[in-house]
Amino acid sequence: MTELYLAYGSNLNKRQMRMRCPTATPLGKVTLTGAKLVFRVYADLDLIAGAEVPCGLWRINRADEKALDKYEGEGTKRGYYKEKILIRYAGREREALLYMMTKGEGIAPPTQEYAQVIRDGYQDFKLENKYLNAALRHSWEAKEHTDITVSRRKRALHKSSRGIIQMPESVRLRRQLIASQ
C-alpha cells in the first residue's frame, strides 16, 4: 500500500527522510490552504481561513508510515496525531496523510538546529522562505510560556547544542521601543 504524505516541518528535509523512511519518494510541492505554519517549539499548523503554507509531498509505504508514527510520537499525549486530508496534486483531488500536534497550544521558538533542518527542507523542495521566516518571527512575537511549551523546550534543548533561534531584529527593536515608552 502506498499513499501520499504532506510534510511542512522537519520531514521536508530529504536527508533526514532518507534516514527515517528510506523508501519514501519526494514528489514535489503543494500549497495547503486554510493552514498557517507555527512553532510550538516544534512545527505545527494552525487552521486559519485564508492562510496558506507550502508543503512537500511524499509517496510513502506502510513501513514509512510506521517510522513516521514513531518519529512523530503518534498516539502519545505529547506527540502528533495523524489524519487524512484532501489536497490538489497533478490536477486532481487526492487524499494525503498529515500530522498535527496533539496538544496544539502555546507558541515558542524552535532550536537553531531544528530551524536549520526545516530551512534545508525548504531548499530541498524549493519552497518560499517567507512562510518559514514569518513563522519564526511569530514564534517570538506571540511566545507563550505554558506548561506544554516549557516541557517541549526542555526536551528540545536537551537534544540541541546551539540553543534556541535568535530573536529577529525587528522583534527586538519593537520590544525596546515599547520598553522605553
Task: Summarize the topology.
Elements: E1 2-7, H1 14-20, E2 25-40, E3 42-61, H2 62-72, E4 80-89, E5 92-101, H3 112-124, H4 129-141, H5 147-159, H6 169-180
Parallel strand pairs: 1-5
Antiparallel strand pairs: 1-3, 2-3, 4-5
Structure description:
With 181 residues, the chain is of the alpha+beta class. The protein has one domain (2-180): Hypothetical upf0131 protein ytfp (Roll), CATH 3.10.490. 38% of the residues lie in helices and 34% in strands. It contains six helices and five strands; from the N terminus they run E-H-E-E-H-E-E-H-H-H-H. The protein has helices spanning 14-20, 62-72, 112-124, 129-141, 147-159, 169-180, and strands at residues 2-7, 25-40, 42-61, 80-89, 92-101. A five-stranded mixed beta sheet has the order 2-3-1-5-4. A hairpin with a 1-residue loop joins strand 2 (25-40) and strand 3 (42-61). It is globular and about 40 Å long. The termini are far apart. The relative contact order is 0.19. The mean pLDDT is 88.
Feature tags:
38% helix; alpha+beta; 5 strands; Hypothetical upf0131 protein ytfp; 181 residues
**Looking at the structure, what is the overall shape?**
globular
Helix content: 25-40%
Mean pLDDT: 88
Architecture (CATH level 2) name: Roll
